[in-house]
Specification:
Shape: globular
Helix content: 25-40%
Radius of gyration: 20 Å
CATH architecture: Alpha-Beta Barrel
Largest sheet: 9 strands, mixed
Distance between the termini: 47 Å
CATH superfamily: Phosphatidylinositol (PI) phosphodiesterase
Strand content: 15-25%
Number of helices: 13
Structural class: alpha/beta
């Protein structure tokens, strides 16, 4: 028990140092462009990322999935159907569940697809009908290397230091298909110079085992973010997100991660009968463990019913709960809010 406590203590000190470096380097809470400026252009397209960059995002988020030939592409889902024309371009290639999985396609095949606004596959209707018109424009999938090169090029030409916020999508699923997404992504990041906390990069995942591998097996000093979902989202998952939100769970996270990425409703729980906002103690307890807090996902067109506008939600999270940054589909709106504080 003493050894275990000592391990937790020493590991927490190291992670807290990384957290302190991250927070001290940021004058304001950071703006993380969720799938780019996805409130305006189709998600995870280079056009969406360039727009988010121009809107003043501090970090651009990259969800990463591997192709059949082990290329890392920037894509949110394990399957292609919700945001591409894969079903019409490659008939007969779906699995038994009717979906076309990224891992079953070569990079050249995926790059030939057209990207559109996200569909709700239950009714084949646009998930956000007020956003970019479905079927309009010419958008493509791209690789993680493509996006990094664009960001680094813009950083040079604009003399800025916008960072990357890389999410490993379902490492366990990849492992079950004999693919190591952790190894592929870390190798690529190293090739592009992301090797220390001084470089503008975070790695995040809902899978704590993958993050622990990065920390302990690879001895990486890159700042890691433990994403926190809900247990009922993925009943088959071995992750216990309820435990992660406890003091003991946060203490364990602090041994390998620099912060957490909770669903914003795990912090803000609504208003009481008198209209007063109610909060959990998650953000407070995370800070006590030296963990940065980056809630997801703030959308101007996806607000809780008791919130009047995005600025109200930003005030509750950034001013009242003092979170360290937010994921948002509307980076310009968050930047505007921060400029008037």
């Amino acid at each position: 028990m003493i050894c275990k406590k000592l391990f937790f203590s020493c590991a927490a000190v190291l992670v807290f140092s990384a957290y302190s470096l991250i927070v001290s380097a940021a004058k304001d809470p950071i703006v993380i462009a969720h799938r780019g400026a996805s409130g305006y252009l189709p998600e995870h397209t280079l056009e969406s990322k360039a727009m988010a960059y121009a809107m003043g995002a501090d970090y651009l988020e990259q969800d990463v999935v591997l192709t059949k030939d082990d290329h890392a592409i920037v894509f949110h889902d394990l399957y292609l159907d919700a945001v591409t024309d894969v079903a019409t371009r490659f008939p007969g290639r779906a699995r038994s569940d009717g979906k076309h999985y990224v891992i079953d396609f070569l990079l050249t095949e995926i790059l030939s697809l057209y990207v559109h606004e996200r569909l709700d596959l239950k009714n084949n209707q646009s998930k956000f009908p007020q956003r970019f018109p479905h079927g309009k424009g010419l958008f493509r999938v791209h690789t993680l290397a493509d996006e990094i090169e664009m960001i680094q090029g813009l950083n040079q030409s604009t003399n800025q230091s916008v960072g990357i916020f890389v999410e490993l999508k379902d490492p366990e699923w990849h492992k079950q298909h004999n693919k190591d997404i952790v190894a592929v992504v870390l190798k690529l990041l190293k090739e592009y110079g992301y090797t220390s906390p001084s470089t503008p990069v975070y790695i995040q995942s809902f899978d704590s085992n993958a993050l622990k591998r990065i920390k302990h097996e690879y001895n990486s000093s890159l700042p890691l973010i433990q994403l926190i979902g809900e247990n009922n989202w993925w009943p088959e998952s071995a992750m216990d997100y309820t435990f992660m939100q406890t003091k003991e769970g946060l203490r364990e996270i602090s041994t390998y991660a620099a912060g957490i990425g909770p669903w914003f409703k795990q912090i803000y729980t609504g208003k009481n009968s008198k209209g007063h906002p109610q909060f959990t103690e998650l953000a407070k307890h995370a800070r006590e463990k030296g963990l940065a807090v980056f809630p997801y996902t703030l959308r101007a067109d996806g607000l809780p019913k008791d919130i009047s506008d995005l600025n109200e939600l930003l005030h509750l999270l950034l001013d009242s709960q003092k979170v360290d940054g937010v994921f948002t589909d509307f980076p310009d709106a968050v930047r505007q809010f921060l400029s008037t504080r």
